[in-house]
Structures are given as structure tokens and as C-alpha cells.
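Backbone-to-sequence.
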């Protein structure tokens, strides 16, 4: 499987200027290619091929006076920016034709120099490498200092240099890594995600919701008020904007670290994990939207998915319409819907008093176990590859963030 490893970069002042120049050149090439295709479509002309577009916006553009500065950066990086545009168009057309799973993909949009996040990508053809001294050598930029937190499992196929809203630089390596299965254990668990508690487990444990955004609300409010008082275009406003971005970055980093630790602990201690397939986009349109976004359920479930594949565990999503909060986990009677203010209830048949969230987690565990049963009633613990003589399809390798 393909994994993505992120490391902090510390470029010098000269390297920061070179990176800013590279960000701008990649953005211009992307926008020029998008503009040419939009103009061709508006004029009723044929769709510009990838090779013809590369010749127009890179090869011929360098010979013009207003685009001569494109030669100051790596040509492979410009080609990669154009490859990103071509991929965006292919995804858009596949979405229109119904050949792409997931939500509809919109047409590519122009990139702005005012975007808080800037990125460029170097493929293996650009001849980037990690030096013996542990620095990242980028073409026409130099050797950039890297804060290594771990070793790369294999040689990287590409690296993306990112500058975030807080002015930090990161290197994101895409590497090919083999699975690292953990020892098989006879234990599984159901998880009920919520807002009062971030996660309630089927064994009765409750994980407190950290509410990182709520806890930092006062500091964020003061930083935002300070920004609103600064004159537009002034240096003090730029400094205040950076302080706001850094405050938000701290919240996002803390939330990500919490999700990483919890997802790893759950998969390490359980062979199978069962969660509910929530419609998070729909919940984010309610009055609880701020709390839903602060919880970060989507990020947590995504981590469970790729870590389960990496460590040889099983993740099962049960249907979102399962009546987990309406059914008694002991006798199975369905007692009907209950408002959110009801946190505990007594079963009318067996007389057991249930905690609403613990009962839901146990029902999720039971529904997940039922989904894993095969036709003979045996419990499936892992995916078994088909023999070579059988026909089959192979899924594409998608880089996963680590």
C-alpha cells in the first residue's frame, strides 16, 4: 500500500524566496492551462490534448517576455502542475459520466496567490533526493533542513512541499510500504460516536470529547478581534492574520494527534472494530454543526480505515438507519425513537435500565458481527486473496496520510 509521511521543513530565507517563486510559477502554469481549455470550450474548438497544452503553457511560454521567468524553476515541477490539472479534468469528466464513486466532482478552478495553502510537487523525474546529511535536495532550491521523526520505509516516489496558513513548511513523501499485520487476537468492539462523549465503547468505556475548538474559543475570538481592528494592507494586519492562523493550526494539530492516538489504541487492542456509517455532511447542516466539526468524526474514521488495512485488522461500517438507540441490547425489543435529552431508559420487556450510548455501542457490535458472518455462519477475520487462476480486479493504490 502507498503511505504518505509528513515532515517539518526549515528552509533558509533564500530558500523561502525560491519556494515562493516555485509556488507562483506552478500556479501560473496551472491557471494558463485551465484558461486555454476554457477558451477552447467557449469557442467550440476541440479539447486540447495534454501534450499540446504542455507545449503551449510551458515550452512556448518560456520564449515570451511575459513568461520568461518560468525558466528559473524546475521544468519537472511545472510539468507536474500541469499533470495535476489534467487529473482534475479527468476526474470531472468521469464524475459527469457516472464512472466515479463518491460525491460529484466540480470543474477545476483557478488557483489564487492569496490562498492560505501553497504546494508544489516533485516527482522522481525531477531528481529530488535525501542527502547523506539528512537534508532534502530540491532542484533549483537547494538542500532544505528536515526534522525527521521516523525513517522512510522505502524510497519515495514523489514529494510535495507545502506551506500552510501559519507559514510552516512541510515535506510530504509518498512511499510504497508493505502491510505490517499485528498479532491476531480474539477481541472486537463496537463504537458509538457522539458529542457528549467522543466515543462510547461496547465494553462500557467512555472517551471524553476534548472539544479543542470550544476550549480555544476565547483565544481565537481575541485574535480575530485584534485582526479586525487592523488597517487593510498594513504589515500589522499581516502579523495579526498570522496569529489567527497559528491559533487555528494548534487546534487542528491537537485534534489530529488525539484521533491518531485513539485510532491506533483501538486497532491494537481489537481484531475488529465496528462503527456506524454516519451522514456527517447532513449533521453538519444542523444547529450542531460547530460541535460536529469540532469532534472530527470523518478524520477519525478515515484513520481507522487505512490503519486497519495496514495492520491487518477489520473495520466494519453498519448502516446509518440501524435502530441502535431504539433496540434493547439484551432482549432485542424495539422500544421506539427517543429524543436526545433521554440519556437512559428501561426496557419494558426485560426491565434492564440502559445507558443510551452504551446500549447503542452494544447494538453496533452485534450488527457488525452479523455483517461479518459468511454464508456458513463462520466469522470472517480477514480478507483472503483469490487464486491467480481466478479473474479479478485490482484497486488503485491511493496515497494515505500518516
Amino acid at each position: 500500500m502507498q503511505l504518505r509521511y509528513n515532515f517539518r521543513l526549515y528552509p533558509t530565507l533564500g530558500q523561502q524566496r525560491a519556494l515562493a517563486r516555485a509556488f507562483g510559477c506552478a500556479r501560473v502554469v496551472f491557471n494558463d492551462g485551465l484558461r486555454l481549455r476554457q477558451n477552447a470550450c467557449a469557442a467550440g474548438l476541440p479539447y486540447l490534448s495534454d501534450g499540446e497544452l504542455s507545449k503551449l503553457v510551458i515550452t512556448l511560454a518560456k520564449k515570451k517576455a511575459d513568461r520568461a521567468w518560468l525558466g528559473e524553476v524546475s521544468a519537472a515541477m511545472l510539468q507536474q502542475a500541469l499533470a495535476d490539472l489534467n487529473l482534475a479534468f479527468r476526474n470531472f469528466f468521469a464524475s459527469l459520466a457516472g464512472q466515479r464513486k463518491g460525491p460529484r466532482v466540480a470543474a477545476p478552478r483557478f488557483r489564487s496567490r492569496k490562498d492560505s495553502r501553497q504546494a508544489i510537487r516533485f516527482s522522481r523525474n525531477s531528481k529530488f533526493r535525501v542527502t547523506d546529511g539528512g537534508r532534502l535536495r530540491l532542484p533549483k532550491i537547494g538542500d532544505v533542513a528536515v526534522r525527521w521523526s521516523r525513517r522512510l520505509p522505502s524510497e519515495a516516489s514523489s514529494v510535495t512541499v507545502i506551506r500552510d496558513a501559519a507559514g510552516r513548511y512541510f515535506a510530504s513523501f509518498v512511499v510504497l510500504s508493505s502491510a505490517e499485520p499485528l498479532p491476531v487476537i480474539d477481541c472486537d468492539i463496537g463504537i458509538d460516536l457522539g458529542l457528549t462523549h467522543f466515543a462510547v465503547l461496547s465494553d462500557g468505556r467512555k472517551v471524553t470529547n476534548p472539544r479543542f475548538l470550544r476550549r480555544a474559543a476565547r483565544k481565537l475570538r481575541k485574535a480575530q478581534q485584534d485582526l479586525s481592528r487592523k488597517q487593510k494592507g498594513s504589515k500589522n494586519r499581516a502579523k495579526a492574520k498570522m496569529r489567527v492562523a497559528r491559533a487555528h493550526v494548534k487546534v487542528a494539530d491537537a485534534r489530529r494527534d488525539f484521533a491518531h492516538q485513539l485510532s491506533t489504541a483501538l486497532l491494537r487492542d481489537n481484531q475488529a472494530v465496528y462503527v456506524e456509517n454516519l451522514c456527517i455532511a447532513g449533521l453538519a447542516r444542523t444547529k450542531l454543526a460547530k460541535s460536529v466539526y469540532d469532534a472530527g468524526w470523518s478524520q477519525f474514521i478515515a484513520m481507522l480505515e487505512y490503519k486497519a488495512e495496514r495492520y491487518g485488522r477489520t473495520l466494519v461500517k453498519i448502516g446509518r438507519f440501524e435502530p441502535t438507540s431504539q433496540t434493547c441490547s439484551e432482549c432485542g425489543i424495539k422500544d421506539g425513537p427517543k429524543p436526545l435529552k433521554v440519556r437512559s431508559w428501561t426496557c419494558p420487556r426485560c426491565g434492564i435500565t440502559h445507558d443510551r450510548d452504551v446500549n447503542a455501542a452494544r447494538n453496533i457490535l452485534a450488527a457488525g458481527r452479523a455483517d461479518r458472518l459468511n454464508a456458513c455462519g463462520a466469522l470472517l477475520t480477514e480478507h483472503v486473496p483469490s487464486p491467480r487462476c481466478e479473474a479479478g480486479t485490482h484497486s488503485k493504490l491511493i496515497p494515505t496520510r500518516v
